Structure formats: structure tokens, C-alpha cells
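User: My collaborator sent over this chain with a note saying "see what the structure looks like." That's all I know about it. Can you take a look?
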Amino acid sequence: MVRLAAARPEERLEVLRVEVDSGLRTRRHLGYWESSEWAAEARPVVVALAEAVDASPSRELVELLQRAVGHVVRVILRADDSNGMIGDLARDLLELHAQACESGVADPTRLAKWMVRFCFVDQDFFEVDPVHYAPGLGEKGLAVYRREVAAKSEGSDRFAARYAAERLAVLDRDVPALVEMLGGDLTSPHQYLRVAEAMLELDLADDALRWALDGIERTSGWQVAKLYDLAADLLADRGDVTGGLGLRRQQHERMPSATTYGLLRSAAERIGEWAAMRAEARAVLGARDPGGLVDVLLDDGEPDAAWTLATPEQPVGWEVGEHRWKRLAEARAVTHPADAMVVWFRLVDEVLTTADKRSYQSAVRYLKAAKKAATGADAMVELEVRVAGLRETHRRRPSLIAMLDKAGFA
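Assistant: Without extra context I'll predict from the sequence alone. Here is the result:
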């Protein structure tokens, strides 16, 4: 930043070039923590390039950004980028590159050849979208891009070839080709979703809705939820709130969960229909996903009903689960602290079936919650008895005993 501030306008690009070559390269293998540190140190160079793109995009800056992306990609190949910080740098540089090219400053032929080389030769985990680059490529650049892609794609089934073909079909508004490439055999929700999203990209909202509804009718699986979301958004854009409510009702009946219950509730509340639908929605959820109904009752401020559902007199064929027991105990503690204390003890026993530090930490947290509940229930003697029993049962776990001592459960 200091060097840039001191540079004359005609010197700024050279300062950036030096920083790109020094700050965005390394020959070392980077472990996980080293990768994070390297990415943080490299970030200011990307920020400076972004400022240059905003201020004065140029052909030279476009090529410098290509050089910067190449450096970062080579670093990724020798790094443990598990947290994605170096990948984020590459994606940001690619976005800056596309932004700089929008102004038409890039040489169309060189740009097209770089795009193909980058995707087909240099690496295979980032894409550059010809639809995004079309303004910068112009007719001449697109012709070169098509020719280069065709040459690289011969005899290849690589992702890069498929991606380029799909994006060129969008650019050409070739609906039959898109359906064939994105839809495939049209047996999964994901295929219908990809076709519907392509129709949206072409501003064909009616076609997108038709594909989404067809996918809902013809396929199954968890990804159908995405088709419901897309179709509901399209109906909302039309102002068809009744149609949207019917769709969310169908979704809840087909694949009930706390999530579908919430979506149905939101749709019904928009037109004042929720009071009439709530009992039916809960019945559907309780029949297929009683744990989801527990969540709903807690979210709706009905902890007593949630407690009754989770603690029936006769055993039920579903597991409440640790997370729900925690929620139930927290809610129950307000009015029935003794019940909450019992739940916290149960959770302590469950986590201690595993002998590791994380389980011990969870056990101590639950014991602290049990102590708070015991105070409210005037049951400190019972707490002391349970803690003494735990210490005896797990006396061969010195790490746990030390944690109990430190937390005051002596």
C-alpha cells in the first residue's frame, strides 16, 4: 500500500506486477496452518488489484490478473487448502478478471485462448464462464473460443468440455441442447433442477416453472425440496399466493418435517389461512416425524405439549435425540426443574459411553445445567448422590475426574 501510494500513475501497474510475483507465489509445500497464514498475507495484493480494476481497467491489468490466478493455482497444488482460503483468493481474482474484461479492454483472441488453456490445461477445479465473458470476447473472441474448445474437446469427456458446451448452449439460447445436456435421462430431481435453472437464465420463467413442477411429479428424493423451493419462488414472483400455498401443502404432506411445516406456515400466514390449517399440518408431521413435531411445539412456545410428546407412558419407536433433549430440558427447567434435572443426568450418562475429552467436556456442561435445575427443584442432595456415583463409576478416567474437580463437583 505504501509503495502504491508513493508511485506515479504510470508506475502503479509495475508496482502491482512486482507484488503479484512476490506475494502470490511460493515454492514451499504449505500445511493447513501455513496455508491459512499464506492466504492472509496474500489478501492485500488481491485487494490492491481490485482497486486497480475499479479505477482503470486495461489490457495490461487483464493479463496481470491472469498471471496472478496462475500463481495462486500453482500454490493450491502444493498446499493443504482444506479451509478454502487460497481457493477464495483464486475465485476473487477470477471475478476481478471477468470484471476487467467487461469493459472490452482485453484482446479478444488472447482472452479466448487463455480461457481455454486455463480450463483444459492449467487446472480442473475452477471454471471461466463464456456467458459471463461474452461482452469482453465479442464475436471475434467467441469464434476463437468455440474453435479452441472444439479442438481441446475431441475425444475427451472431461468436465471442462461438458461445461463449455453447456454454457455455449446458454449463450446460443439452444433450449433442446440444454435439455439434452442438463436433463440427461431425466430420472433425478437434480436433472430437472438444472434444466429449470437454465430456463431462468434465459428469462423463460414459464418454462422454468413447468420443468420444476414436472420434476416434482416425476422424481423423488431429498433434492425434490429444491424443486419445490424454485417453483414456490416462481409462483410468488407471479403473485400467485394461493398456488404457492397449495404447493407448500403438497410438499408438507409428501415429505413432512419441521422445515416443510415452517414453509407451509409462512405461505398460509400470508393469506390468513394458518389458523385453519395448523392442526392438520401438525397431525401430518406427528404421524411421520414426531421428532420434528417436538421441534415445532418448542418453536411455537408450547413446551408442555412438546414434553408430553417426548415422554409418553409407553415406549415409542423413535429417538428423541441429544439435541432435542437439551432443548426440552432448557424449556422444562422454567416450570419443572426436577424434570429438567433428570434429563441432564440422562445426557451425562449417554455422553460418557464414549471416553474422550470432548465427551468429558459435554458431561461437565450437562452437570452444570443439572446443578442449576437442582437448585430450583431443591434437590441438591440428589445431585450430590449422582455426582458421587459418577466419580465412583468412572474412577479409572483421571481426565474426567480432574475436570469434575475443576468444575467444583468434588
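A starting point for your reply to your collaborator: The chain has a mean pLDDT of 94.
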